[in-house]
Design a protein that fits this description.
By secondary structure, the protein is α+β, with helices and mostly antiparallel strands. The protein has seven helices and eight strands; from the N terminus they run αββββαβααβαββαα. An eight-stranded mixed β-sheet has the order 4-3-2-1-5-8-7-6, sandwiched between helices. Helix 3 crosses helix 6 (171-194) and helix 4 packs antiparallel against helix 6. The chain starts with a helix and ends in an 11-residue tail after the last helix. The relative contact order is 0.15. Residues 221-225 have low confidence and may be disordered.
Amino acid sequence: MSEPVLKLREQVAALHAELTRYGLVAWTAGNVSARVPGADLMVIKPSGVSYDDLSPANMIVCDLNGTVVEGELSPSSDTAAHAYVYRAMPEVGGVVHTHSTYATAWAARGEAIPCHLTAQADEFGGEIPIGPFALIGGDDIGKGIVATLSGHRSPAVLMRNHGVFTIGKDAKAAVKAAVMCEDVARTAHLARSLGQPLPIAGADVDALYHRYQNVYGQSAEPAGS
């Protein structure tokens, strides 16, 4: 097993704990995967295994057609969807799936989450879109994810009657998007229960997104440079 694969097994196993920490999953539902840099491979969790029992050793390595390359257990039932995203979107390094409560409630309604919050503008660049209904197990979910997110600034899609899929430059970024998606969905639900939320002008959404993506946080440059 190569060093990059060993590191990704450790990272992907550890990131699943973030899904439980933020209350994004129940029982064994949900999954995180990561693309192996420089190889047509990905690491994903095994199907139906308790989050408490996940470890680097039982993460599954698959090729980008979803065929198991390393691992003794069956991979996640969403493996084909993850694999399709990686094949179609080479810039994506991580994919996450959850059934987080509030975001999935919007998915059950078949409704995108409108952008009424600066935090949503920051992270998603506008609405969180709704994707089509698709059955689990084949490429259809992956096709719906790619069709919905291609050309869209949002790293999250609400798959109708199903749940949330997020993408990122790596698995950690995709997990962050899943956490933020649920936070936004909860606040949007509460705001709507109080009345009609106020809109944010499109130009302001653009400005907020640009600032957060390009200015917010610590610069990689040394202090004083």
